[in-house]
UniProtKB/TrEMBL annotation:
Organism, as annotated: Martelella endophytica
One record GO biological process: DNA integration
InterPro entries documented for this protein: DNA_brk_join_enz (IPR011010), Integrase-like_cat_sf (IPR013762)
UniProt GO molecular function: DNA binding
Keyword vocabulary terms for this entry: DNA recombination
Record-given protein name: Tyr recombinase domain-containing protein
Length: 193
């Protein structure tokens, strides 16, 4: 398993931008208050779109059950600054990690989606927004999860942001991908898997 496997799954179960995912370092998968999170911040691989894009995003339970933490730990053993998805390292100085993830995703979708314009990892962000908007979750939670600026001055300037517990509850609203269930094993936070 590599970035071409994980990036679309992470996009589908977090709504994070492809570059945020593809350029992450192994050390940026952290535990906050007992919850595994993506610690999305600028690093040597990528910048962020804006200030509010810097955030912590809880990892969906299905990603844990698919073995993401086991993969992270195997990569982290290579060193503190190792890329989580070194297979996505661009070959040109002007390329980016996200561009490396897209072709494999588009090729995998060829049989599933005939309209080439709809083959986009960014479509997962729209899907996540639709799912969350059809719940009673506060818009501030959605914005903090996706790295969006709040709609009001109060939500964007004041307070310390949404708690990890509330972000976790928001991520938990996203449905599991049924086709992946046969590959899942129940993840236990203290386990070595």
């Amino acid at each position: 398993m590599d970035g071409r496997y994980w990036v679309p799954l992470i996009a589908a179960l977090t709504g994070a931008r492809r570059e945020e995912i593809a350029g992450i370092k192994a050390a940026e998968i952290i535990q906050v208050d007992g919850t595994w999170c993506f610690d999305i911040k600028p690093n040597a691989n990528r910048r962020l779109k804006n200030r509010q894009s810097e955030r912590r995003v809880p990892i969906h339970a299905q990603l844990l059950d698919l073995g993401l933490i086991k993969y992270v730990r195997s990569m982290a053993r290579r060193g503190a600054t190792v890329d989580l998805f070194p297979d996505l390292k661009p070959s040109k100085a002007t390329g980016n990690f996200g561009d490396q993830a897209y072709p494999a995703f588009a090729n995998a979708m060829n049989d599933q989606i005939s309209d080439v314009d709809k083959k986009s990892l960014h479509s997962f962000r729209h899907y996540i927004i639709d799912v969350i908007n059809n719940t009673s979750v506060k818009s501030e939670y959605r914005n903090d999860l996706l790295g969006h600026l709040g709609e009001s001055i109060g939500s964007s300037r004041y307070g310390s942001g949404t708690s990890i517990a509330n972000l976790r509850a928001t991520i938990d609203l996203l449905p599991r991908i049924a086709a992946l269930e046969p590959f899942c094993q129940t993840f236990e936070a203290g386990s070595q898997s």
